[in-house]
Write a sequence for this structure.
């Protein structure tokens, strides 16, 4: 029998008392408990988007890459505005991966400036629209001004419930899982649900988001790129050649309709899945 002491005892006590009502709204007993069946349009869903192609969009027009990133902000605004009416309750947008630090420093600085400007300029709009916002990923490598903008946006929108908007900045799924495992240490008393709570805390979220239902990647590439590996266990994938700056509400609706047309069996055969769906 493995015992846990001190820090691990406190950690497990915290994990057994999730602080946010979102956790109660989406039970965490199994991945299937927080995922929804594609064909049921009444179920709110969690959609994530890998927003790819902004640099190539700009290059094709003879523009600097920064122009593509700034045009991509408008695609973000269109997507956020359209999401609630399509039954999306949680929207996670992959803005900057931990591997993106390898890009040229002028581009990185421009992206960080865009993030800060976007957060500060959107707060009032998000509050009015009922959009709760938080940023997942590491913060120790971000500039203090950007961290301050993140914290201000999260505090201002904390009570909003119409849409949960999550922005992934300096995000690596493998890094999050690794750091959560380090925090857990040698304690063997946790469940998958409690580990999901730990992942959320490591990732600066108050409670775990529902497992991912639909992952969209723009720009023509077809890979996960170290994004939401834990939450993607039973996600449906939609890949589109549309470059991110051109992505609009009609593209989002088409992806959601494609998702709704699929039947998700979660490892069961069709007959037992149909019974469970009733």
């Amino acid at each position: 029998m493995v015992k846990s002491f001190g820090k691990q005892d406190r950690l497990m006590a915290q994990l057994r008392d999730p602080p946010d009502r979102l956790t109660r709204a989406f039970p965490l007993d199994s991945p299937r408990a927080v995922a929804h069946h594609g064909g049921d349009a009444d179920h709110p869903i969690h959609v994530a988007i890998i927003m790819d192609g902004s640099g190539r969009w700009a290059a094709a027009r003879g523009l600097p890459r920064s122009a593509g990133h700034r045009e991509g902000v408008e695609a973000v605004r269109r997507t956020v505005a359209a999401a609630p009416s399509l039954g999306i309750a949680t929207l996670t947008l992959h803005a900057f991966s931990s591997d993106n630090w390898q890009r040229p420093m002028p581009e990185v600085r421009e992206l960080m400036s865009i993030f800060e400007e976007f957060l500060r300029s959107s707060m009032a709009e998000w509050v009015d629209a009922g959009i709760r916002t938080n940023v997942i990923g590491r913060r120790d490598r971000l500039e203090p001004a950007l961290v301050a903008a993140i914290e201000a946006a999260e505090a201002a929108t904390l009570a909003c419930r119409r849409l949960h908007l999550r922005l992934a900045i300096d995000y690596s799924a493998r890094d999050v899982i690794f750091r959560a495992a380090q925090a857990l240490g040698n304690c063997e008393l946790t469940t998958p649900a409690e580990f999901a709570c730990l992942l959320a805390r490591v990732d600066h979220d108050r409670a775990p988001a529902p497992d991912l239902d639909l992952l969209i990647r723009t720009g023509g590439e077809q890979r996960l790129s170290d994004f939401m590996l834990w939450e993607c266990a039973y996600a449906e994938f939609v890949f589109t050649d549309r470059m991110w700056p051109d992505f609009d509400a009609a593209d989002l609706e088409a992806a959601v309709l494609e998702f709704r047309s699929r039947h998700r069996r979660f490892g069961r055969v069709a007959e037992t899945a149909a019974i469970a769906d009733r």
Q: What stands out?
A: The first helix runs from residue 7 to 15. The radius of gyration is 19 Å. Strands lie at 45-50, 88-97, 131-136, 163-171, 214-217, 236-239. The CA atoms of residues 134 and 154 lie 5 Å apart.
